[in-house]
Design brief:
- With about 350 residues, this protein is an all-alpha fold.
- It is built from 15 helices and 2 strands.
- It has a two-stranded antiparallel sheet with strand order 1-2.
- β1 and β2 form a beta hairpin.
Length: about 350
């Protein structure tokens, strides 16, 4: 009680505002501290020393392909929700968000920037936020499905527990669907309106016959590209594990990476890599080295985003009214009615 009396007036809103970011920062720092305490800094240094220009070129090339596919996925979702964006502008915006996610706490601020910026340009900030949220969620759902197939097929430390995990996830998803469906049918509360919006987005937008196949294809290509980059990092770092086993381990690490408890991606990724490689008998230090090398390669691969942000800053300084990305209108259908048609 004494602590509560000592908190300054007005501190409550500040805690609520910055609390999640502090939690993410603390989680990332804690994982990194634990790894350094257990294994020292050598695995991280080995990852930095393992960088080669051939690996950087390969990572940059694969990231171009995955970024184009990600931007395509975002464009498909945005068009389905009536806030369409041209593909060139989507690619540039995605590079910006990837770079910001790679250097800021939490790994999602770049997506927030992308959503708000596009929403303002489209005249619908709420629609922009929904489009990015659905795009990220679709990508993560498809990634989880691909990961489940891979882990059920290939040997990995999580394979024995995977059926129980999948059953639990399926149960939670079913309960969530029932809650959303029930809430959408009654009342006028904020929850009801949100449930109806989610239901409408799914029925008339994302699950439309011309939409979901594109989302699935784009997401599978993105997962394949990121996995290939991870495999390159593992081989360059000196891992000689069989390709199938390596892919299974890296899929586990990629699944953990979507959890926003990191510092620019650092923390949970290295911790899960250490556990996965250690559990597979390949050495926890090797896992940290691979994850470190992957992080460096990806930072180099998303560097064009920094250039675009710098260009935007220069343009705003010269002309405050100059937009940061192309405003060329998307001529494709912009409404749910058009998608249904």
């Amino acid at each position: 009680m004494a602590f509560l009396h000592s908190v300054p007036a007005g501190a409550g809103p500040a805690v609520r505002r910055f609390g999640p970011w502090l939690l993410r920062l603390a989680a990332g720092v804690t994982v990194l501290w634990f790894l350094v305490r257990q294994m020292g800094a050598a695995p991280f240094k080995d990852g930095l020393r393992a960088v080669t220009w051939q690996a950087v070129v390969a990572a940059v090339t694969l990231t171009v392909l995955t970024t184009v596919c990600s931007a395509w996925r975002w464009r498909v979702v945005a068009r389905a929700l009536g806030v369409g964006i041209a593909l060139p502008g989507a690619v540039c915006a995605y590079y910006r968000s990837l770079f910001l996610n790679s250097v800021l706490v939490g790994g999602i601020l770049g997506d927030v920037h992308r959503a708000v910026t596009h929403g303002r340009r489209a005249g619908d900030v709420a629609g922009g936020l929904r489009a990015v949220a659905w795009e990220r969620l679709c990508g993560q759902v498809i990634q989880a499905m691909v990961t489940a197939v891979v882990l059920l097929t290939l040997p990995s430390p999580v394979r024995p527990a995977l059926p129980y995990v999948l059953a639990s996830v399926a149960g939670l998803a079913g309960c969530a669907a029932l809650v959303v469906r029930g809430a959408a049918r009654r009342g006028r509360s904020r929850l009801t309106r949100a449930a109806r919006a989610v239901s409408a987005d799914l029925r008339h937008g994302l699950l439309a016959p011309g939409v979901w196949p594109q989302l699935a294809l784009a997401s599978v290509l993105v997962v394949a590209g990121h996995t290939a980059t991870f495999v390159i990092a593992a081989r360059v770092a000196g891992s000689t594990a069989p390709l199938g086993e390596l892919v299974a381990l890296l899929m586990v690490v990629q699944t953990a990476m979507v959890i926003p408890l990191s510092i620019g991606g650092w923390g949970l990724r290295e911790g899960v890599a250490a556990w996965a490689f250690g559990a597979a008998g390949l050495g926890a230090a090797t896992g940290v080295t691979v994850a470190t090398l992957y992080a460096v390669l990806m930072l180099a691969a998303v560097a064009p985003g920094a250039g675009l942000l710098l260009r935007d800053a220069v343009r705003r300084r010269r002309d405050p009214g100059q937009p940061g990305e192309s405003r060329r209108p998307d001529r494709a259908p912009q409404t749910l009615e058009a998608v249904r048609g």
